[in-house]
Design brief:
Elements lengths: L1 E3 L10 E6 H5 L11 H7 L5 H22 L9 E3 L10 E3 L6 E8 L2 E8 L2 E7 L7 H7 L2 H8 L4 H18 L6 E6 L4 E7 L15 E2 L6 E3 L14
Antiparallel strand pairs: 1-11, 2-6, 3-4, 5-6, 7-9, 8-9, 8-10
Length: 237
């Protein structure tokens, strides 16, 4: 995992972190006790242990992101959630009640977790490299049809369709369609990641650091304290 920190002299930039669930749960700054009572209550409805771990990891990783930007201890970070559809709290898009200028987002999938914080609307999505969205007839209803057709024209459409999917999900989580997109592949964790928004970030860095990342730009990078080494779990755990 790498830490993407504020650009020097230019105010807040973006922090985006990607890790395996095992890495997050073994991180010395993080434990499930950091979660708010309403978050722990929601966990009681998750019956699959692996999925529960993924949810916990994503929520903890979000706290670590906020900590890196604000200087607060992870224990002092108190994100909330509000549904833009029904207006109720406790589910929907995450936000920081005491820092309205910062956007936050998190994602989890099959042993992977990702989180991002930055000025303005932010959205992040992570998926295992091996995952294949579909069927194509459904994707054409959810994604730009011309982009789906272009992906399907490739010799192996699967990776291209997956990239389309994570980009769309990142924009959806940010709540805006006109935001800049950053996309990269974390080879060490067998993950594809898309980040929407994160305005004001400088530099170019991958979100996998020493484990290897391709094509991540628009964030200023510096290594975070290392996480416990762990192989990326296979998709469909």
């Amino acid at each position: 995992m790498t830490r993407h920190s504020p650009a020097h002299g230019k105010g807040a930039a973006a922090v985006a972190l990607v890790a395996t669930t095992a890495e997050v749960l073994a991180h010395p700054e993080l434990d499930e006790g950091l979660l708010a009572p309403w978050e722990r209550l929601r966990l009681t409805g998750i019956r699959v242990p692996g999925r529960r771990d993924d949810v916990v990891a994503a929520r903890l990783l979000l706290r670590l992101c906020v900590s890196r930007i604000t200087g607060l201890e992870p224990r002092g970070v108190e994100p909330a959630q509000r549904c833009p559809g029904c207006g109720r709290d406790g589910h929907g898009r995450p936000y920081l009640p005491d820092r309205p200028g910062l956007g936050v987002s998190f994602s989890h999938a099959d042993g992977l977790a990702a989180a991002a914080v930055g000025p303005g609307p932010v959205g992040i999505d992570v998926e295992p490299l091996a995952r294949r969205p579909g069927p194509v007839s459904v994707l054409r209803r959810l994604l730009p049809e011309d982009e789906v057709d272009a992906a399907c024209a490739e010799p192996d459409p699967g990776p291209a369709l997956l990239r389309l999917w994570v980009r769309r999900e990142a924009l959806f989580k940010a709540g805006r369609e006109d935001l800049p997109l950053t996309e990269w592949t974390d080879q060490g964790r067998a993950a594809v990641v898309a980040l929407a928004g994160a305005a004001g970030a400088d530099g170019a860095a991958g979100a996998a650091g020493a484990d290897g990342a391709d094509g991540a730009a628009g964030v200023d990078g510096a290594f975070a304290p290392p996480l416990s080494p762990a192989p990326a779990p296979r998709s469909g755990r």
